[in-house]
Design brief:
Largest sheet: 6 strands, antiparallel, barrel
Oligomer: single chain
Family: Belongs to the FlgI family.
Organism: Henriciella pelagia
Helix content: 10-25%
Mean pLDDT: 78
Number of helices: 6
Subcellular location: Bacterial flagellum basal body
Protein name: Flagellar P-ring protein
Number of strands: 25
Strand content: 25-35%
Keywords: Bacterial flagellum, Cell projection, Cilium, Flagellum, Periplasm, Signal
């Protein structure tokens, strides 16, 4: 009786009237492309965190922490040569930050801090002045400040509870830019837009949208991931031209794709995923997809053309049972998933069914399994 109730629910799902599809959403060009030359740069530095409450590095396992502390104190005029320094409130850390494009001297940067020794926690610590270098080994910023730690580590005599990672933290606005990256953007005579997800259709739409907006052939599609802009025909600066281009709306061509996360049991389906004629038996579940296309003829003596209309049917049921619920024609994979949910199919079994259908060539989409 329980199976019969599931099948009744599945049949009612099939006859439910779906809402009319809305117009395809559009996005701005700036959200799908990167401009050549306008990029971020990664910075890294080695520093010392002080002020820890007995949760710092140990000298035995992290001897470099003692060496760094000795060197820092000597630079400050404190002679500690020959002294036995074994503080437990100091930790060696790596400091990372991202230098945005066109960052100016004095600008603030967010900083991430991570322990490289055996410190138990960075909570309550303060990062001492740390130079941050780029890939060319030049110092572009300096970081210093109190560390904000989101993780927590509580230990008692007979128990220990840890949430998050207390050996990493952040310093909001903890770095100051000391060196600018020289780049004269307004002297450019051409620009290159690089698509973050290369696609022939999307690149062609970007070219058409820009040319229609300016009424001249200023954009040229080089390949599915690149659109070139000729700036010589404009009277305004390249920065002004790019400001006008990046907010133009564009309809992005989304590929048919299925993403399966087996750990969480999440299945995400693209809008254009289609299925063909197929029959599958998995465990005690049977699935059958049948296509019966219909030819639509034009009226006599008209200029119309004959059109083949797709008609599909999906049958889902239990092996060896008479009770089979049939979905409406023109079913989609999302309706198939809904039918499998109604039969109580687990996400793991559902993922196996989708993979098998893809292997058989019945699903026309990219399949990504994580």
């Amino acid at each position: 009786m329980k199976l019969f109730a599931w099948l009744i629910a599945l049949a009612s799902l099939a006859v439910t009237t779906l809402p009319a599809p809305v117009a395809d959403a559009q996005t701005r060009i700036r959200d799908i492309v990167d401009v050549e030359g306008v990029r971020q740069n990664d910075l890294i530095g080695y520093g010392i965190v002080v002020g820890l409450n007995g949760t710092g590095d140990t000298v035995r396992n992290s001897p470099f922490t003692e060496d760094s502390l000795t060197y820092m104190l000597e630079r400050l005029g404190v002679n500690v040569q020959g002294e036995d320094i074994k503080p437990d409130n100091v930790a060696a850390v790596l400091v990372t930050a991202t230098l945005p494009a066109f960052a100016r001297n004095g600008s603030s940067l967010d900083v991430s801090v991570a322990s490289i020794g055996d410190a138990e926690s960075l909570e309550g610590g303060t990062l001492i002045l740390t130079p941050l270098k780029g890939a060319d080994n030049e110092v572009y910023a300096v970081a210093q400040g109190s560390i904000v730690v989101s993780g927590i580590d509580v230990q008692a005599q007979g128990a220990r509870e840890r949430r998050g990672t207390p050996t990493t933290g952040a310093i909001p606005n903890g770095a100051r830019v000391e060196r600018e990256i020289g780049y004269d953007f307004n002297q450019r005579q051409s620009l290159t837009l690089a698509l973050r997800d290369p696609d022939f259709t999307t690149a062609a739409r970007i070219e058409d949208t820009i040319n229609d907006a300016f009424g001249a052939p200023v954009a040229f599609m080089r390949d599915p991931g690149t659109v070139d802009l000729d700036l010589r025909v404009f009277d305004s600066s390249p920065a002004r031209v790019l400001a006008n281009i990046e907010n133009l709306p564009i309809q992005v061509a989304v590929p048919a794709r299925i993403v399966i996360d087996e750990q969480s049991g999440t299945i995400v389906l693209g809008e254009d995923v289609t299925i063909s004629k197929v029959a599958i038996a998995q465990g005690n579940i049977s699935i059958k997809v049948v296509e019966t296309p219909v030819v639509s003829q034009p009226n006599p003596f008209s200029d119309g053309e004959s059109i083949v209309l797709p008609r599909s049917q999906i049958s889902i049921g239990q092996t060896g049972s008479n009770r089979i619920a049939t979905l409406n024609p023109n079913v989609t994979l999302s309706q198939l998933i809904a039918g499998l949910n109604a039969l109580g199919v687990s996400p793991q079994e559902m993922a196996d069914i989708i993979r098998t259908m893809k292997t058989a060539g019945a699903i026309h989409a990219d399949l990504i399994v994580r």
